[in-house]
Design brief:
This protein has about 160 residues and is of the alpha+beta class. The protein has one domain: 2-Layer Sandwich (Alpha-Beta Plaits). Helix content is about 30%, strand content about 25%. The chain contains 4 helices and 8 strands, in the order βαβββαβββααβ. Strands 1, 2, 3, 4, 5 and 8 form a 6-stranded antiparallel sheet that branches. The protein has a two-stranded antiparallel ribbon with strand order 6-7. α3 packs antiparallel against α4. The protein starts with a strand and ends in a 5-residue tail after the last strand.
Amino acid sequence: MAQVVIALGSNLGNRASHLTQAKAFLTTLSRRPLIISSIYETEPVGEASTKMYYNAVCAMETTLPPLQLLDRLKKYEQDYGRDPTAPRWSNRTIDLDIIDYNRQVISEDTFRVPHPHYAERLFVLHPLQEIFPNWEDLPSGKSIDTLIASAPKIEVFKKEVNW
């Protein structure tokens, strides 16, 4: 069984509902209850994204191998209305990214773990710190506090949203 960390994001429609639905989907893939962060509201990153995001992180345990898990996540995104042909960083109903898979470094042509940009994204780091306060970046060995201190600054607000 592999412990996996997934980042969730939504900036279209009812963002909290989209995250709640994605959490329910992830529960079907997990062999144990999910560990979930709070929801954080963050400004968009990238030129194609224009609306504020709701972001969260969850940890799960799954028997799915990495590429099969990725396929399931991408299928869920498409079934939930995400256009795979949209420009990078476009507005979206749901975004699901694998941040960590069983503390392994995986490098495939179209798939890398840890997620190649997570250490630069406060919208991932703050919720990750909430559920794993002693997190260390696998490739660099840097603590979560160090990653947060060195990440590009964006507005990040913890929300009082039950999901």
